[in-house]
Amino acid sequence: HISEMSWSKRIKHPSKIVSIGDEVEVMILGVDVNTKRISLGIKQLEENPWDSIGEKYQVGDVIKGQVRNITDFGIFVAVEEGVDALIHVSDISWMERIKRPSENFYKGQEIEAKVLQIDPDDEKFSLGIKQLIPDPWDEIVASLVPGSRHTGTITKIMNFGIFVRVDKDFDGLIHVSELGLAHGERAYDMFKVDEPINYVVLSVDQANRKVSLSKVAYDLDEEELERYVQNSQAAKHPSSQRQEAPTESTSSPLTGDSATLATPTDLSEKQEHQKHVADSDKLEQTTENKSEDTVEDTAETSEKAQPDHETIASENGTEESQEPSPDESLSQDHQDNNSADDLGDSDKKNEVDQEDQS
Fold first, then answer.
1. Beta partners for residue 80, in sequence order
2. Who is most buried in 26, 170, 213, 229, counting CB within 10 A?
3. Other C-beta atoms within 10 Å of 229: how many?
């Protein structure tokens, strides 16, 4: 098989190594009796260069090699026969963003690079060009202090702003809102590439290596400029400004203990919390009142639906007085008879008294 002819991965066709009629020395790799096939290899007669690559090169070494192939993600450099190293696109320059390595390099070009990683097991060899020089970022940042005034050259004009060369290998961005353009004006019409421009450093993003600039702030006085830069940074990082709000510590006049004075942000949050609690209590009280009103309305409705027992008793009492019961009638007759007997006895006594007088 072609993969068994050479340790190098560059071989694309057997004709690059052998020709018809050549006598070659090979090694038997396998025998398949069932299919009657024998596998042979040529590269096995030579030492695998990856077995000794770790002994020849160390991480940090600076080596030279020729560019063998160029891709969008990097360039391949021939270290020795059968060993190619990759220089990733991110390891070409500290400051410049390389999008197409083919614009900066060509096949056969001899370059110098530093060894970054060697992995014989996976047959990977990594090199870097930018590592040949110290990272200039720290030096650049030292001169780009927020609020400082500078003059640079326009390198690129975009719809969202213009790029200005703040160092020989680094550009900063002046956003379109910081150009001072009037309504309807465009950056393409007002500025030209390679023209000088005055600017003020607004902020420096260490993590992403970005520098924000402003043209309109260049003519402000020192006090206005300081306030302008602070407002610009606060607008970009509102959460960090809020978290870093200072607190003052003082001694309580009552207890003598240390107490913390609330900042305007703390007071605002506290008032917001108190308002939320008050609204919740008010809503809860309103709900309870509505519930009580509902219960009272239900009770009144029930009372209206039930008959008035006293009224019924009064009406029954009236009816009973008009139509007495049999027991009451008998009692009344008995009383009437007793009254009649008493009258009869009184009449008889009066007659006896009259006869005695006579």
1. 83
2. 213
3. 20
